[in-house]
Design brief:
With 336 residues, the chain is of the alpha/beta class. It is built from 13 helices and 10 strands. Helix content is 40%, strand content 17%. It is globular and about 65 Å long.
Length: 336
Amino acid sequence: MKSSLVAILLTAAALFGVAGDARCDEPVVIRAAWIATPASLIPILFDKAGLAKHQGKSYRFEPVYYASSPTQISAIASGELEIATLNFTSIPLAVLNAGLTDLRIIADETQAGVEGHATVEYAVLKDSPIKTIDDLKGKTLATIGIGSGTDIAMRATLVKHKLEFQRDYTLVEARPPVVVPMLLDHKVDMIYNTVPFTYLPDYIKNSRVLFTMRDGMGGAELSVWLARADFIQKHRAALVDLMEDMVRSYRWYADPANHAEAVAFLARATKQPAENLTDWAFTKKDFGRNLDGVPDVEMLQRNIDTVQSLGFIKSHVDVAKLADLSLVKEADQRLK
């Protein structure tokens, strides 16, 4: 009886052990956040068959839409998200305010004003009496949101001209689709504008660019991929596989030979006619990204230092300590 019982228990243990190993071999679910495309390629990253060679094998990639960066911060803090996509204003909030000191920057996503690519523009009406930045004193300006990336770049420029918020100008928050009508209706004196709204006929015909984000703070890291250190440690192999597939996708979308098909994927995702996208999407008229998937850590540090200099954060954030570029660099080596 005893020997039979032992045999049964050993058999059961073996079965459970096999089952446990099988579960370990299943693809790692990687939920990745995105806010807008094509600034983020995440929702269409693997629409082209054959790009994601490791998808469904070592990992399962799940794009998840978020309306804003703060909701992403809450989600990755609670374990509802594996990869957040944050910019130079939201990274300090995640680290300093939410206490996510274990966040690690693992890949590049979107850059503004680099290598001739598009940047954020700040424009007035073509016939406006505002001819220089100094002429903005006493005026009403549109911003996407207080403390946002476009807001920081605008303030950084105005500070150079000794113009300070509240004392010298007024801000009105407005979403991208409505800023051009607000300018045309004389509700504000200057607006920010960004891709794709910079290609609207009314904007091109009636506005004049006064300065750009690049003028205010040089190039900018508009978005990078971040994951928590514990997740990276546990699932490093799967993440390197994802980085390899991601870089392959970045290069495919940037290749002019694939432009028509790439635009077709974007048109389907955004529910827009392809003819509205083909002239600018995935070209120099669009935002850029590093085609090796490697973020510009020095540029990101300068961006965050600007946020601190304007008083939006009180403590220094050392980007180098947050960056773990070993994953994407290992992936790049595979593709050589």
